[in-house]
Amino acid sequence: MVASYFLSDPSVLLSDLVFGLLLGCVLAVVAHGLNMIWGVVKVVNIAHGEFIMLGAYGAYFLNLYWGIGPLASAVFDAAIGFLVGYAFYYVFLHRELRGKETVSLQSEMVTLVATFGLSLVISTLALIIFSGNVVGIDYDPGTLLLGPVSVPLGGLYVAVVSILIISGTYLFLERTFIGAAIRAYSQDVTATELIGANPAKVASLATALGFAITMAGGALLTVFISVGINPLMGTLYAPISFVIVVMGGPGKMWGSLAGGLTLGIVFDVLQAVATPQIAFATGFLLLIPVLILRPEGILK
Amino acid sequence: MALELRDVDSGYGETQVLRGVSLKCGDGTITVMVGPNGAGKTTTLKTVNGLIRAWSGSIMFGGEDVTRLHAFERVERGMASCPEGRRLFPRLSTETNLRLGAYSKRARDSVDETLQDVYGMFPRLRERAEVRVGRLSGGEQQMVGIGRALMAKPSLVVLDEPSLGLAPKLIGEIFEKIVELKKRGLSVLLVEQNAFQALNIADYAYVLQEGRVVNEGPPSQLMDREELKKAYFSIE
Q1: Does A188 sit within 8 Å of B89, measured CB to CB?
Q2: Taking the CA of residue A217 as centre, how many other CA atoms within 13 Å lie in the half-sphere pointing to its CB?
Q3: What's the CA gap between A8 and A14, in Å, rounded?
Q4: Which of the four, A79, A83, A205, B224, has the lowest number of CB atoms within 10 Å?
Q5: pLDDT tens for the 236 residues of chain B, in order
Q6: Does the CA dihedral B216-B220-B225-B230 come out positive or negative?
Q7: What is the pLDDT of residues A17-64, one digit of tens each?
Q8: CB B9 within 8 Å of CB B16
């Protein structure tokens, strides 16, 4: 079966590769929000997947009631995510992080358990409110034929927006004063305070940005899962995000894209040749050689 | 008076380090604190710049009580620090490190001007502007540390062991720069293990021992006193 796939028609393989790249871009954005918080504030948000799910439902309801497309919904989701991120920082992280030079093991445990609890609360509430039914958004702007290769336009738009989001955050961190302060914070919290920056302001902004990106990513993701929005989808996309961030290296902005594209291609091609289960398992197994050979991430 | 500590107690967690420390730092002067390891010099500086809170007593800076203010709020009022171990951002370039020094509102608008000023004072840093700070030599890093503090347009600069780990020739250079800060009208509060060299540039000095000020005075008077020698020799 595998051999026949590769031998039969190269355009099929090529189309799958292209689709994998597009999928990789959106997975990158979904992981990018986690990357930001992990890389800067040094906290792993276990409830990350639930905020992707909320972003996806945000897009679903905006479409259902006002007919808004997923791309425009991503902007709404980002705005909501930004506010949610601030609230998240001050409710869950501020108490543990303030006045500390580094995140202690105890604080790490507290935030892990707290965000794990949050993840259970959100997904349970979502099950009650949204019900367990799988829903989707009908959004299909057509297909672009490039010779023998067919490119879904929806996926292409999403990929472009995804790359814009990642390069946007990169430029923000590189080119602005507050962005430089965020990078400074990720390297030395005490020194950041000594240059006159309020560490809580810097860390809460980074968290808010992370949430904005995560929820926007949830909205963009809906284009790829035409029937797949459900209250428990976080349990799939959270581990995918963790793998991507570790692959790319926490705190490396382009790392999200490198990890996302890798997983996108692996998932998509292996799903075509084998089964989705094998595809996901292989994607996660890839982490082992990465951690052994390049523990700091595949990017330099 | 640029800075005045009145009867300050301070420490870490349950451990008290400073016991009733009072000291003054005059406008446009260099004030040096000397004393053996563990005397509380660094703790005094951290209490001054706000990285740790005073347990009791008060800290007046520029005529204002800053005892309860956070470190970043003290920077906004004109106090800049180059802390123990310099605490630079190793993965950022020299120039980004310097620019970040002007983060406070008081300094941000004139960041380009101040940067040229700092480059004028440390021409070597202009050559190394694009290099990651982690790749600089110890002497260059110390220049970035002092330069970053100057970027905040401070009236008082708090320096913790600027000579630490530097070659003797470079130490002389750094001390010259500190004198230059004074010539520009800045006040300097300096902690040094190199006691005699530091006293050479000081206007006034304090000797700390076991968290207390045991002696103070102009360096010329202090140099002869037996206590300083004892304090100094106990470093060995």
Answers
A1: yes
A2: 36
A3: 12
A4: B224
A5: 899 999 999 999 889 999 999 999 999 999 999 888 889 999 999 999 999 999 999 999 998 999 999 999 999 999 999 998 899 999 999 999 999 999 999 999 999 999 999 999 999 999 999 999 999 998 899 999 999 999 999 999 999 999 888 888 888 889 999 999 999 999 999 998 888 888 889 999 999 999 999 989 998 887 666 666 666 655 44
A6: positive
A7: 888 899 999 999 999 999 999 999 989 999 999 999 999 999 999 999
A8: yes
CB proximity A226 to B under 8 Å: no
CB-based contact B175:B197 (threshold 8 Å):
yes
Distance from CA of B9 to the nearest CA of A (A): 19
* Amino acid occupying residue B142: Q
Q: B191 φ, ψ to 5°? A: -110, 130
Residue of chain A with shortest Cα separation from B49: A194
B52 and A CB contact within 8 Å? no
Protein fold of B3-78+155-233: Rossmann fold (3.40.50)
Among the partner residues B71, B90, B92, nearest to A194 by beta-carbon distance: B71
